[in-house]
């Protein structure tokens, strides 16, 4: 196996891959957006560009940004393994470090940091971007709206002389307008995308078999779902444009339109905005019963009931005062007392048991959108012989039902999973992105998701070093099916957009100002 040879990179540290070297050739000369599936070496590619930059501009420094502290520490650890330079020249900077100390640490050669810290330090003159010749953005699909990546890039483009930007992601999204906007804000001049099917990438991709597991929504759950839908249909008739199309997507679209009318002074739109907020809450309840189950819906309805009693929202008070919703609450609690579960739980237990029957050493990752479901899955899998499940969720935020996990506890659980103490990692979206989760044999999606970004990230967790299997649980004739196809079509659109952009000289190199003129 050939390895990269470079004076700043340790021998046998980075495998030589043709597709990475082709991308590197572009990134050396242009600000580049790199789209690579998870597990195909975005970190290694960035290290190669960092080595080239430091060798050719030894008086300059490199700034590598990642969204979270654990990810910052992970990248620092990887670079320490890659680089043939003193470890004290590789520094991680987070909000835990005093600002005055951070000012000194920015003098190191390679800096890893979280974006909010860097944004604040630029504003407070603790950080001079002119000293840096390369700026790396990891998980760059987060560069939306007011996210700190945007302001940092604009400062770098304005101050740094002949500086270079490298932006990394597994998926930047499927909206051409949003991709163009992101490229403009980051001063991107070239796009390099590789698919798992590309000729130069395929040798490094292990086969992934995907199996869609369909379950029927039980009649009892269907009755609860119909009560909620009846409420939506009844209330939607009060807005003409919603009378025959009160889907979640349509509600969100109409909400934006009405908010825009309010900003323009149209007070008549206030009623519609309030009603749409009401309908979206009930739509979420429908999603709970269809894709998650009785416990998830019960917890959600209890939260709405608490909010109504505390007079937090007029929309919630109207919902919880409705007789059909009251009946829905009663029915939900009856099902909970009977121990009625979503059929996905039974199917999940069956899949996991079969995996461990075939391979006692298997590692499984299970994705779910909701913390309540994660807890329910952990409890269910404790009944499976050989399964050692553990929850992997984010830190607590306002309104959560649990305390969440600190970043220290997250890292501890990942390490125990890596060592085999646990063999089933059940996580929310935090387990999809960035973090160095060990290679797994099987991934299970408890539900499909409409986001192509998250779907791509989920799939990237399996089949890194060995052939992998993916199971997707889908409740028939529910939004599960709609979400699956939505993600599928968005991913195809994203690949088409980026493939057309690849190899072209983009107009975004001058940043937003230049983009606006074209």
Task: Please supply descriptive tags for the structure shown above.
alpha/beta, Rossmann fold, 7-stranded parallel beta sheet, 6-stranded parallel beta sheet, 49% helix, disordered C terminus
Mean pLDDT: 85
Helix content: 40-55%
Largest sheet: 7 strands, parallel
CATH structural fold name of the largest domain = Rossmann fold
Number of helices: 19
Going by CATH, what is the homologous superfamily of the largest domain? P-loop containing nucleotide triphosphate hydrolases
Structural class: alpha/beta
Give a brief outline of the structure.
The chain has 518 residues and is an alpha/beta fold. It has helices at residues 18-29, 42-56, 69-82, 99-105, 115-123, 148-159, 176-185, 219-236, 248-263, 269-292, 294-309, 314-321, 323-338, 343-358, 371-381, 407-419, 452-459, 479-501, 512-517, and strands spanning 32-35, 61-65, 90-93, 110-113, 132-137, 164-169, 190-193, 208-215, 364-367, 389-392, 424-427, 442-445, 468-475. It has a seven-stranded parallel beta sheet with strand order 3-4-2-5-6-1-7, sandwiched between helices. It has a six-stranded parallel beta sheet with strand order 8-13-12-9-11-10, sandwiched between helices.
């Amino acid at each position: 196996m050939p390895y990269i040879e470079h004076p700043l990179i340790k021998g046998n540290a980075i495998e030589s891959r043709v597709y990475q070297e082709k991308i590197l050739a572009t990134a050396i000369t242009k600000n580049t957006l790199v789209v690579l599936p998870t597990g195909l070496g975005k970190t290694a590619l960035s290290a190669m560009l960092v080595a080239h930059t430091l060798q050719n501009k030894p008086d300059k420094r490199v700034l590598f940004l990642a969204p979270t502290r654990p990810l910052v520490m992970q990248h620092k650890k990887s670079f320490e393994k890659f680089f043939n330079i003193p470890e004290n020249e590789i520094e991680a900077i987070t909000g835990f470090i005093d600002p005055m100390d951070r000012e000194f640490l920015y003098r190191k050669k390679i800096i890893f940091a979280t974006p909010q810290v860097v944004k604040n330090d630029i504003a407070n003159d603790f950080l001079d971007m002119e000293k840096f010749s390369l700026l790396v953005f990891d998980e760059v699909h987060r560069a939306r709206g007011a996210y700190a990546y945007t302001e940092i890039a604009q400062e770098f483009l304005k101050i740094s002389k002949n500086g270079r930007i490298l932006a990394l992601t597994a998926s930047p999204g499927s909206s051409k307008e949003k991709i163009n906007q992101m490229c403009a804000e980051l001063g991107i001049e070239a796009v390099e995308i590789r698919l798992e099917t590309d000729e130069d990438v395929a040798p490094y991709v292990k086969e992934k078999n995907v199996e869609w597991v369909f379950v029927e929504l039980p009649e009892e759950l269907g009755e609860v779902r119909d009560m909620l839908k009846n409420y939506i249909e009844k209330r939607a008739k009060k807005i003409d444009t919603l009378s025959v199309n009160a889907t979640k997507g349509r509600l969100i679209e109409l909400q934006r339109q009405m908010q825009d009318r309010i900003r323009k002074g149209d007070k008549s739109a206030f009623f519609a905005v309030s009603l749409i907020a009401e309908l979206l809450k009930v739509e979420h309840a429908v999603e709970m019963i269809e894709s998650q189950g009785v416990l998830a819906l019960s917890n959600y309805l209890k939260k709405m009931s608490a909010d109504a009693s505390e007079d937090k929202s007029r929309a919630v008070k109207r919902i919880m005062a409705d007789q059909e919703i009251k009946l829905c609450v009663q029915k939900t609690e009856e099902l909970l007392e009977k121990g009625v579960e979503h059929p996905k739980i039974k199917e999940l237990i069956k899949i996991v048991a079969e995996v461990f029957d075939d391979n006692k050493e298997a590692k499984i990752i299970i994705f779910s959108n909701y913390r309540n479901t994660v807890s329910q899955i952990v409890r269910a899998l404790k009944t499976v012989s050989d399964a050692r499940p553990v929850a992997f969720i984010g830190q607590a935020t306002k309104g959560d039902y649990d305390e969440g996990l600190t970043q220290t506890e997250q890292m501890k659980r990942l390490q125990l999973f890596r060592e085999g103490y646990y063999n089933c990692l059940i996580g929310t979206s935090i387990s999809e992105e960035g973090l160095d989760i060990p290679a797994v044999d099987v991934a299970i999606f408890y539900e499909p998701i409409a986001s192509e970004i998250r779907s791509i990230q989920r799939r990237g967790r399996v089949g890194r070093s060995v052939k992998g299997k993916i199971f997707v649980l889908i409740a028939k004739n529910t939004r599960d099916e709609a979400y699956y196809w939505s993600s599928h079509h968005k991913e195809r659109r994203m690949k088409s957009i980026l493939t057309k952009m690849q190899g072209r000289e983009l107009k975004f190199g001058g940043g937003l100002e230049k983009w606006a003129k074209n």
